[in-house]
Amino acid sequence: MSPTTLLTLPAELRQKILSETIHIRFGTSGAAISSPAASACRQLRGDVKEILPSWLPTASTPTIIQTPTGMDKLHVLDKVLKQRAESSNRSWPGFQTIQVQLFTRDAVRVQKPRRSYWQVTNPLQHRAGMDGTFNVPSLWANKFRGMPTSVKHVLVDLTMPETQLQDIEACGPGGPLTPKGRILPYTRWQRVYWCLTLSMIADLVDELQYGRHWATHGRGVIGSWRRKGESVRET
C-alpha cells in the first residue's frame, strides 16, 4: 500500500490544509494573497486558485504591511472580506493581527551627494525635501490612526535589509560617501539619521497606543495636566 501524501488526500481535505498556508502581503503594487504551495506543482496551484475566491483569513494568517499606503489597502480588503463573509453566512471578526515592516524594501540605494553652495546634503535623509529618512517613510505613524478597530496585535518588524545597513555604514566615519579632509571622524549624517528614525519609531508607538482609542471613541482628551486638587482625566 502506497503511503498517504498531500497529493493523494481527497481534494476537500487537501484544500483545507492548504488554506492554512495562505498569507497576505501589502506592498507598493497592492495586496498579494498567495501560498508558497502554489509554486510546488500544478495540482497544488490549482487547489490554491480554487480556494482563494471563498477564502477568509484566520487569526493566525500572516498579514504583512510593507508600506504606509498598505494600511489603506488593508481597509479595502477588510471591507471586501466582510462582504464575502456576510454573503456566505459566515462569521469573520476582521483582521486581528498585522505585521508592519518599518524599513521599506524598495528604498533607492544611497548615492554620493552633490555639494551645494552651503553644504553637502545628508543622503540618509528623505529626498525631495520630505520628512523622514531614505528607508523609513514619515507617513507610518499617521496611517495607524485609521487602523481597523478589529486589530488587536501589531508586530513591528525592525529588520533592516543588508544593503541599507551597508549604505548607512558608508555614510559614517571613514565611509566612502562622507566628506573628506576633516580632522575628527564625521558622524553627523549617521547621528541625524538615527535621531530621525528613533523619533519616528516613538511616534509610531504613540499612535499604536492611542490610535485605537481614537478609532473607537473619536479624538478625545487622552490625558490632561493635573491641577492642584484635581485628578488626571482620561477619556
Name the average pLDDT. Answer: 80
How would you sum up the major sheet? 5 strands, mixed
Poorly predicted runs: 217-235
Computed CA radius of gyration, to the nearest angstrom: 24 Å
Strand order of the largest sheet: 2-1-3-4-7
Percentage of β-strand residues: 5-15%
> How many distinct helices?
6
Q: How many β strands by DSSP?
A: 7
State the order of secondary-structure elements, H for helix, E for strand. Answer: HEEHEHEEEHEHH
Distance separating the two termini: 67 Å
Helix content: 25-40%
Key words describing this protein structure:
235 residues; alpha/beta; 5-stranded mixed sheet; two-stranded antiparallel ribbon; 6 helices; elongated
Molecular structure report:
- By secondary structure, the protein is α/β, with parallel strands linked by helices.
- It has one domain (6-217).
- Helices cover 34% and strands 11% of the residues.
- The chain has 6 helices and 7 strands.
- The protein has helices at residues 11-18, 42-51, 69-87, 140-143, 162-170, 188-217; strands at 23-27, 30-34, 63-65, 97-101, 132-133, 136-137, 153-157.
- The strands form 2 sheets. It has a 5-stranded mixed β-sheet with strand order 2-1-3-4-7, covered by helices on one side.
- Strand 5 and strand 6 (136-137) form a beta hairpin.
- Helix 1 (11-18) packs across helix 2.
- The chain is elongated and about 75 Å long.
- The termini are far apart.
- Residues 217-235 have low confidence and may be disordered.
